Amino acid sequence: MSEHIASKKFYISIWAGLICLTAATAVAANIELHQFNIVLALIIATCKMLLVALFFMGLKYVSDKMTLVVVVAGLFWLFILLALGMTDYISRSWV
Amino acid sequence: MATTAVAAPERENYLNKQYGISSWLLTTDHKRIALLYLVTITLFFFIGGFFALLIRLELLTPEGDLVLADTYNRLFTMHGQVMVFFFLIPAVPAVLGNFLIPIMIGAKDLAFPRINLLSWYLLVIGGVLMVYTILAGGVDTGWTFYTPLSTHFLDSHVITAALAIFVAGFSSILTGLNFIVTIHKMRAPGMTWSRLPLFVWANYATAIIQVLGTPVLAITLMLVALERIFNLGIFNPQLGGDPLLFQHLFWFYSHPAVYIMILPGMGVVSEVVACFSRKRVFGYRAMALAVIAIAVLGFLVWAHHMFVAGMSLYAGLAFSLLSYFVAIPSAVKVFNWTATMYKGSISYTTPMLYAFGFIGLFTMGGLTGLFLACLGIDVHVTDTYFVIAHFHYIMVGGMVMAYLGGMHFWWPKISGRMYPESWGKLAALIIFIGFNLTFFPQFVLGYLGMPRRYWQYSPEFQVLNVLSTAGATILAVGYLLPMAYFLWSMRYGKPAPANPWAAAGLEWTVSSPPTTFNFDETPVVTTEAYNYDELPEVPVER
Amino acid sequence: MMGMWIFLITEIMFFGGMFFGYMIYRYFYYNAWAAGSQHMDFWWGTINTVVLLCSSLSMAMAVRSAQLGQRKSIAVLSLITILFGLAFLGIKAIEYHGHWIAHEFPGSRFQWEGPYSNEVQLFFSFYWAMTGFHALHMVIGVGLVSYIAWHGWKGRYGPHYYNPVENVGLYWHFVDIVWIYLYPLLYLISHQRVLG
């Protein structure tokens, strides 16, 4: 159990940040940035994910560091699937 | 051999603490749950074995004359699915792991005892669905469910089979989750990570794979079912889909799955070899790191199952190289077991015989895996009996032997009885002979070009096939023997002392069988794992 | 707690399989992906994203109330979370209905005016599968939060024991995170024009 207890104000400010980022991504989607559109969208989504994970889910304040290892491992494993799997599709057209 | 019932000590233990069916079906005692699993997986072993015998009977003659081609497809599919998902994946972790891990770390039970029971029920529900699938006519896709055959071209019971495996997969995930939390949080005082028995390390590495890999299988099976029901096209080239996407997703789990199957067996071998060499395991740290390395590297090699499927050659090169790397920690383990035995005081007990069998046969299976990892060779032997021989050497020659070795080693602890040693040795010998006679000819057959999954073959392959079937019959006899004498021993076997093998490990400090909560007081650990130089040398009971 | 985090990484891998498939086909069929995304309702999707973020706020506050032993707050904040969750599911139902009557459901029902019909059908396969599994997780989440609301009201949770509330919170936030990624990937691919 985590011992750190945040204030209501703090949670509301995190929420406000999330709403702003949502607005940002919605607006950015209407601006033509070619290849960068998806990059920007994913960056914003990742920032939102970090806000939720670190502050709403309490990852910033966990006492047991193994929890961080577990989360990083999970994300890394997803990365293995996506990246190593993509090597096949990207290189199929190579001569 | 005595044939009168020997009265067991009346001391209370986990077996006699409560009687009645609900005390078993609603138990949360990890030891009872282990026995529930034992009954379930043994049943599925014989179901899967039954299909194997039918396959070998058909292959006695070159013509397809015993069953129809379509039936043959169902036979090898059901053999594979039942054996992989309902025997091999659960066997060592759910039976031996469940029983031993809490005791080995000095705990009263697993971290989540009710989830442990739920895991068993999930396996049973999956099993019932699988039996339904079999009785309804089975599936004929091969255990690998390749698309678009499984999604668009067959009317067999693909969805019920997929559902059965989906449910069984959750059993596996929850067991893995339970083990990870237990090993992290419930070790007794003084039981540091570097004092853990290697069996615990092996199951920990296995649990990591179960937790990270099985969900991908789950979503893949769901997508196959949705594709079948709604004709989606995700895996259908006619609608723009890619069949290889299925293979990527399927093998992302199914390759690490083979490490789920073998790593616990390796843990058993470490325990057995140390005990019957009366020496600590050589290179403890390397052995522990090796199982973790196998678990991690095992996730990076999956596409070596797809070299000839149409994937990019460049990606094939990458996966081939990675597959060579994963062999390294396995080899380290084989060398270290050998070094453990060097200048040890060897006893040729039944568990040790199985361990010898494992080390030799796993090595052969593993080396032939390297043949297959080589792109050029793979083009020649993939989808032939060479591959079948390769994985059966590891799964049967390795994993099943380790499982039997572990069952014999810990039988006194589990049941409170000794099995008859001479019968044990005889069965081990029969199994070893039967195994090699069944599967060695298959290496040759594959190299000569006999394809897998064909119900008829070219006549020049018949002699080797007959040898293989003869071996399978011997193997079947060998497997029936332990069933018989383990059951016999429960009533007539000699009562076992707490530590019949004079082995190291916390499990040998508690009574045989243990009490429900394992320890009267929480043990405090002060020694390394295999402190055989400190333990008294006691003649091993025959 | 560690157990719940381990369970969540299994969920990462579960959804991850679909993200992998999505990524592959977006790479090959960008135009079809963009065309399909144009037929998503931008406003419903954006409102739903906000709804879920609000539900995460109320859920986090509910966990906080449990840590402080504020019995009534736990129940009230849990109920607010459930209401937001149900709102999300309601909006999803409206969207699904819209797609259904527009023949944007893959299979024999699918009809599409315009090029890349097969590939657009693939896009919708992923849309329905990904949002469908997400919605299923939302339904389970609503059930879990109801359990917390009930027992919170009965006074079971406090500073000495709030593990279940925390665990349900983790699950709820995770399902929100999945949507945080689904929103741009499904709704915002190309909202001004289709290229090429």
Short structural description:
The complex is a heterotrimer of chains A (95), B (542) and C (196). With 95 residues, chain A is mostly helical.
How would you sum up this structure, described in words?
Chain A has three helices and no strands. Chain A is mainly α and 95 residues long. Chain A folds into two domains: 1-62; 64-95. Chain A is flat and about 60 Å long. Chain B is mainly alpha-helical and 542 residues long. Chain B has one domain (27-509): Cytochrome C Oxidase, Chain A (Up-down Bundle). Helices cover 66% and strands 0% of the residues of chain B. Chain B has 16 helices and no strands. Chain B has helices at residues 21-25, 30-58, 69-88, 91-105, 113-135, 149-153, 158-185, 198-230, 243-277, 284-297, 313-341, 350-373, 375-381, 385-415, 421-448, 462-492. The model of chain B has no long low-confidence stretch (mean pLDDT 93). Chain C is mainly alpha-helical and 196 residues long. In chain C, helix 1 packs parallel to helix 6 and helix 5 runs antiparallel to helix 6 (163-187). The model of chain C has no long low-confidence stretch (mean pLDDT 92). Classes of the chains: A mainly alpha (95), B mainly alpha (542), C mainly alpha (196). At the A-C interface, helix 1, helix 2 and helix 3 of A face helix 1, helix 3 and helix 6 of C.
Low-pLDDT runs of 5+ residues of chain C are none
Broad CATH class of chain C: Mainly Alpha
| First-to-last CA distance of chain C | 50 Å
Low-confidence stretches of chain A: none
CA radius of gyration of chain C is: 19 Å
Strand content of chain A: under 5%
Major protein interface: A-C, 48 and 51 residues
Helix content of chain C: over 70%
Mean pLDDT, all residues of chain A: 90
**In oligomeric terms, what are we looking at?**
heterotrimer
Global morphology of chain A: flat
Output the helix-strand order of chain C.
HHHHHH
Amino- and carboxy-terminal Cα gap of chain A = 55 Å
Question: How many β-strand runs of chain A?
Answer: 0
The overall number of domains of chain C is 1
